[in-house]
Amino acid sequence: MEPEDEQSGEPAQRPVPSGLSLFEPAAEAHGSIPDASGSAAGAVEGGGESPPDREPPARRRRTRRVLLWTLSALLVLAVGGCGALWWTAEHYASSVHRIPDAFPTAPETAQPKPVPGSGLNLLLVGLDARADTPTTGSAAKAPAWQAGAARSDTMMLLHLSEDRSSATLVSLPRDTWVPVPGHGEAKLNAAYSWGGPALMTETVQDLTGIRIDHLAVIDWNGFRALTDAVGGVDITVPRTIEGVGEARAWEAGTHHMDGATALLYVRERYGLPGGDLDRTKRQQNFLRALMLKVMDSGTLTSPSRLGGLLGTVGEVVSVDDRLSNTDLFQLAWGLRSLRADDVRFMNAPFGGFATRGEQSVVLLADHPAAQLWEAIRNDRTDQYFQEHRTGDTLGTDVD
Known about the structure:
By secondary structure, the protein is of the alpha+beta class. The protein contains nine helices and 15 strands. The protein has helices spanning about 55-95, 190-210, 220-230, 260-265, 275-295, 305-315, 325-335, 365-375, 380-385, and strands spanning about 35, 40, 95-100, 120-125, 150-160, 165-170, 175-180, 185, 215-220, 235, 255, 315-320, 345, 350-355, 360-365. The strands form five sheets. Strands 3-12-9-4-5-6-13 form a seven-stranded mixed beta sheet, sandwiched between helices.
């Protein structure tokens, strides 16, 4: 029952909340029916004007509807924005061509055991594919591997720390003399010619004892296109390099290189004092310049620009089919805080030149190499570089 008023004996009126709430009952529920002027006539027995601190019910209803529509619109925009971002990432990541059967078929017991929480290891391969027909990327019209069709021109082992705060990129000279499973000893780049990505991966795993998580392959056409897509790169040649035979001469100074010029720069070795070892340093120097170009443009910190970069990569690079769209986007996004000083470039520890039969080959220094592989395997590269400051790391003075 309603409580009675002590003086009149009539039922007491329930107080009407003065604050605005999205969940407040409509004015009619309190018996208030606004008249034409918008005042709540009859809201309190005996008549009288509405209290000055209360909004007219009609205005409160309009305000409530505006708030509800605004909230709904914001929710729609938020959901739509997330959906658009997801669609963009999925679209560009799907454009990256996948390589099937890129990993060894050897039993797990015959492969290096993965070390949990030890970062990510990627094998980067540049193909010595001289044909004009692309072999990598979404525009590829020829397979990435045909027996004997092409050797790998560049091999790099990229280690990303577990927290993505540092990266180590180790070049493996193509003339490195190694055991190739099923083929005896040979130059490292022969593995790709004989068995494609799977045999190359197995050969590097056997050489280093490091489990390869993913593989990326690019050919000459892709290299040119990727360089042009970022607007070229600036590379400084510290001293004049004379041309030798078909090798181009380079004047000392900074050169802005488009795709075709950059390809000449990274492929040359005959005009360099260290031959193939100096060539690997040029390749690392180019990657460093490319990385700086991407970072300076804010690409890795912008989801939309990152999507565009993945789209460009998808046109020219092929990756293993274990790298899902989510993995690819998370990998790129995870590197957004990485800076040039956080990336170390180096050659595998050099043990000397030698001759095997009629072939000039490169030998690795067994003990220093074993220390490096152990550091990468256990994600202890920071400690390794503190203890081996004299390693063959890339400096700023690159011929």
